């Protein structure tokens, strides 16, 4: 077994970082979406791909599956992402419409956990988003039977070519089995890295429509 060690900033024998700002229940906004927006605006300019977020789902046997997706929308009640409805995650969400999102902002040593129920986005919202995508992405969505076995790369490329020819000179409609999901959180956790593993954790739990905040041990 190899022990992996991350870089540490050391000054006078003490591990320090200006980036690790304390987080207290008294500091956070009463609305976790406002708190998320604040962390997003502070952290995302420092990141290469801030929209990358881990999506965890579980199948009908309780087996968890985690993968990155791109966070495409945040409003005052939900988080939105897009995918193929027949993919592993689509099948999981069909049988178990609950999921967790996990965002890590490495430059500021922050993690946000978001958990809740998931529903399929309206067809109109998915259509609008699909129409805004680059043409190559639209063709890709048609060409890939996401998460199904693929005999070879050549099969995918042949299918891509076939789709490009089929839609030549005209707009590409959204594939019926491709679109968005919205996750409506019931719980958030904001985690701030601190020295000596004495991290700060503040959770929000939705109780009858009201958000309650609490501190957890690191
Ligand atoms: C940074 C990053 C962003 C991704 N964004 C998406 C996305 O928005 N939608 C999507 O379907 N797959 C996305 N993927 C691919 C997924 O991680 C995954 O491979 C794919 O969705 C199939 O997952 P599944 O078989 O569990 O459904 C992304 C991968 C990475 C690394």
Care to describe what's here?
- The two termini are 26 Å apart.
- The model has no long low-confidence stretch (mean pLDDT 93).
- The chain contains five helices and eleven strands; from the N terminus they run E-E-H-E-E-E-E-H-E-E-H-H-H-E-E-E.
- The chain has 218 residues and is α+β, with helices and mostly antiparallel strands.
- The chain has a domain at 10-120 and 177-216: Pnp Oxidase, Chain A.
- It is elongated.
- The strands form two sheets. Strands 3, 4, 5, 6, 7, 8, 9, 10 and 11 form a nine-stranded antiparallel β-sheet that branches. It has a two-stranded antiparallel ribbon with strand order 1-2.
- It has helices at residues 32-43, 88-95, 123-132, 135-143, 153-166, and strands at residues 10-11, 14-15, 52-58, 64-70, 73-74, 79-84, 98-105, 110-120, 178-192, 200-207, 210-216.
- Helix 4 crosses helix 5 (153-166).
- Bound molecules: flavin mononucleotide (FMN).
- Residues 49, 52, 65, 67-70, 81-84, 87-89, 146-147 line the site of flavin mononucleotide.
Radius of gyration: 20 Å
CATH topology of the domain at 10-120 and 177-216: Pnp Oxidase, Chain A
* Backbone structural class: alpha+beta
Oligomer: single chain
Separation of the first and last Cα atoms = 26 Å
What is the CATH superfamily of the domain at 10-120 and 177-216? Electron Transport, Fmn-binding Protein, Chain A
| Strand tally | 11
Mean pLDDT: 93
Percentage of β-strand residues: 25-35%
**Tally of helical segments:** 5
Helix-strand string: EEHEEEEHEEHHHEEE
Bound molecules: flavin mononucleotide
Helix content: 10-25%
Largest sheet: 9 strands, antiparallel
Q: Can you tell me the CATH class of the domain at 10-120 and 177-216?
A: Mainly Beta
CATH architecture of the domain at 10-120 and 177-216: Roll
